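Researcher: Please translate sequence to structure tokens.
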Amino acid sequence: MPRVAGINVVAVGVAAVAFYLVGVLWYALLFQQIWMELSRLTPADTEGEGWKMALGPIMAIVSVVAIALVYKWKGGSFDVVQGALKAVVLCAGFALPVVAFGYVYAAEPFALFLIDASHLLVAYALSGAILGAFR
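Model: Translation complete:
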């Protein structure tokens, strides 16, 4: 498999697509209406903002590359389950506290935090499992 800086490019690509698709599932299918309401957004608020959708895949790639780098630096071998668990720990330690700022300091509803946090936990776990599968 092709590697860049010791990271399996195919694994990162597959994991990034999976990460992004979890977001599509969460925000376009499962929780779209309630997320919009909790975010105090209307369809009119998002008009002309479609270009921001292009940032989603970029954010997924950056997240997965970061997970892969931590795995590389940590070394050792691991499987799908260990890959998922390690990614959940990374998510809980880094991503979730950042998402919690909105709830803690911006008075966002707790349900909004739960939607965003669950998205990240599932996306990280799936990405970590995929990276573990390719090791």
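Researcher: Any highlights?
Model: The beta strands are 3-4, 7-8.
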